[in-house]
Amino acid sequence: MLQLKNIYKSYITGGSRQIALDGINLKFRESEFVTILGASGSGKITLLNIIGGLEHFDKGDIIINGKSTKEFTDSNWDSYRNTTVGFIFKNYNLIPHLSILENVKMAVALSDLSKQEIQEKSIEALNKVGIKDYMKKTSEYLSKDEMQRVAIARALVNDPKIILADEPTGNLDSRCSMEIMDLIKDVFKDKLVIMVTQNPHIAQKYANRIITVRDGEVIEDTNPLKDELHQKPIKLNKTKLKISTGIRLAIRDISNKKLRTFFYILISSIGIMGIALIVALIEGFNEKINNYENDSLANYPIVIDKVYNNSYIYKTDSDKQDTENIDDLKSHKDENVIYPYDSDEDDSKHKNQITQKYIQYIKNMDKSLFSAISYESQVNMNILKKDEDGKISILDTSCINLSSYPKDYGDGTYLEQNYDLLYGYYPTNQNEVVLVVDEYNRLDTEILNALGVNYNNNKKIEFDELIGKEYKIILNNEFYKKNNNYFYIDSSEENLDELYNSKKAITISITGILRAKKSNNLYDLPQGISYSNELCNYYIENCIKSDIVKAQENSDYNVITGQKFKNSNVNEGVVTKISGVNILNNINQSATKNQMLSSLGASFLPSSITIYPKDFEGKSDIIEYLDNYNKDKPKDEKVLYKDTSTPINKLSTSIMRAITIVLIVFGSLVFLISLITIFVLTYASTLERKREVSILRVLGSKKRDIIRLFNIENIIIGLLSGVFGVFMAYVFIMPMNFILERIIDLPNIAVLKIENTLILIVISILITLIGGFIPAKIASRKDPVEFLKKV
């Protein structure tokens, strides 16, 4: 049945090689009682371990029923130990936290038998060794000979062909030794029993063959087998630790070490609790931000200006242009100069063509999406300027980006709140205006030319050259002269001088140069001249009462040129605002009555449209609607808009992202600490369970079975830790919300949703699996022989 052919085995200890077995050649019968005698260190235990597949030989071969083991894999040896070999040890090697019955069942639990069959076979084995009545007890309640009986039952239960006994009576007294030997000889009478002993008396009394070894060699064999072996085919059944068995072992280990398990779960749950609180804070902040967006940001309007400049506002979906890179300028630098530039070469600047067709498109928009739409016209005033040589001329207001600002804003003025004063002072009355530059201290050359600033192609203009410059606003009744039913402009030098020096002229002067603050993302005012609302309202009121506007409203011809309008339908549009007059560009080009009214301040075509969405979802639909207008249109016909909530939304998103990153970093640290802690605790557990792991390996468990065992235990620990951690998180959320409300005045910040709790429990399980995998792998690779030698 079993043959050892020229077996060599050596160990390296202390840098030198020690020969344990030196050319062993033995044949064993299918049924015989063999004892191996020899002094300590003679090689008899090594010989027994090699026969049992616990150690591998260096050279030679083991033949089992005619099958060579040279090509055996680890899995083959595991199956061989489980199905062919039964072990009886000097120190019993029982798993202490399992009952007697469960210890015996472990030997057969790796087979494919049913649960009922395993139970019946185990009870039968205990009954044969006379210890059935103790099967529900653990080993701590048994005597030494009773524990050895359990070990014998465990070796018997699988009905192995070979029984390997390592000094089974070494820890017993004489009487118990005889009883155990009688039992071994009786229950294994038809098996091959190979027993290692140092007691010649026992060998002579019970063995029918005695082999004596010395220095790794067989020096005597009382009954050698010289004939050819009678061979039977060997069948190695596959072994596998069942999940149910793994769960049972894990639960027993957990319940047996309650204090250690409690601290294990507590430490793991702290990590999960920390992650849960972080998730709750992130969820809470996100919910607050979303509510804020829905309640507040949705009311921030969508603005369509005559001139769209994407260097002043964050890009939206309607913006498909690339902003020009400015390599040689630095934004928001502290320097008292202005840099002239040609905006026509700036790709970021776009002039919107707000036509009657576009106005109608806006009016056709779903009214349920917005709460209001405001149409505003730019006020273009009649302004005179004096050149350096003293010559008076009409200022082209279409080039200087006239805009107005509100007086009061929050805790101070609008300008002080949103714009840095680069030079001069903030306006103190309605006749003082400011010059607004962009973030690079740039000003369009078109504006500089219109203002009469002589820069002679210089790359820089000192602030002093602009501060204090004066201009005169001329009201309509003084600016336009009437001749019968027509009006005209007297642009003679004498008349312009008279108008300029008239007491009725409104003198305005540039008192400050402003630039939007770095924190001001809205950039409401374009670069150019900006004046107060008081001046704007005063001018509009006067313009409404002017003779030329009244005359033009009641005429179907151009009151300046006398030409008939191409389309004199007064109802073509609705007059919403009064604007000033752009003398140079608009009057002679007015082809329709409405265009002429626009020139004179009665425009139905606005320069700015402001849409106020009802909610955040409505805003998205409005943006989609506006984008649809631009589809398939050439670049110069597109109407681009700015969403005033974009910078605020981006700011809140950035703040939320920053908070999230901080919390994620903190959560990652908690995760890492939990991972390390679980690794340490699992590794400590593997050290404590060396006996159990070694016994399972001896009984035929594969390495992956050991990993599976620890993984199952880690899953249970992770589940308990996750549940406990989530529970503790819910407990801590209430006081944490109370404290946060006192600090930041926001109620119920931390919100932990049910779906998140389930995810966290899964994460807890994954953490324990990941943290425990390496220790489990290490445990599976432990050599059971090393442990058996120490016990």
Describe this entry's structure for a reader:
The protein has 791 residues and is an alpha+beta fold. It folds into three domains: 2-237, 3-Layer(aba) Sandwich (Rossmann fold); 253-293 and 651-790, no CATH class; 301-643, no CATH class. 42% of the residues lie in helices and 19% in strands. The chain has 24 helices and 31 strands. The strands form eight sheets. Strands 16, 17, 18, 21, 22, 25, 28 and 29 form an eight-stranded mixed beta sheet that branches. Helix 9 runs antiparallel to helix 20 (645-688) and helix 9 runs antiparallel to helix 23.
Largest sheet: 8 strands, mixed
Our measurement of the CA-to-CA distance between the termini, rounded to an integer number of angstroms, reads: 31 Å
- In total, how many domains does the architecture comprise? 3
Strand proportion = 15-25%
What is the oligomeric state here? single chain
Radius of gyration, Cα only, in angstroms? 48 Å
Helix content: 40-55%
Structural class: alpha+beta
Q: Helical region count?
A: 24
- Low-confidence stretches at least 5 residues in length (pLDDT < 50)? 311-327, 568-590
**Beta strands, count:** 31
Average pLDDT figure: 81
Backbone shape: rod-shaped
Sum this structure up briefly.
The protein is an alpha+beta fold.
Describe the secondary-structure layout.
Elements: E1 2-13, E2 16-28, E3 32-37, H1 44-51, E4 59-64, E5 67-68, H2 74-83, E6 85-88, H3 100-108, H4 115-128, H5 144-156, E7 162-166, H6 174-187, E8 192-197, H7 200-206, E9 209-214, E10 217-221, H8 243-256, H9 258-295, E11 302-305, E12 307-309, E13 337-341, E14 349-351, H10 356-363, E15 370-376, E16 383-386, E17 392-394, E18 403-405, E19 408-409, E20 412-413, H11 414-418, E21 419-424, E22 432-437, E23 442-444, H12 445-450, E24 461-462, E25 470-473, H13 476-479, E26 481-483, E27 486-488, H14 493-501, E28 506-516, E29 528-532, H15 533-544, H16 547-553, H17 583-586, H18 593-600, E30 608-613, H19 616-630, E31 642-643, H20 645-688, H21 690-698, H22 703-744, H23 754-780, H24 784-790
Helix pairs in contact: 3-4, 3-5, 4-5, 5-6, 8-22, 9-20, 9-22, 9-23, 16-18, 20-23, 21-24, 22-23
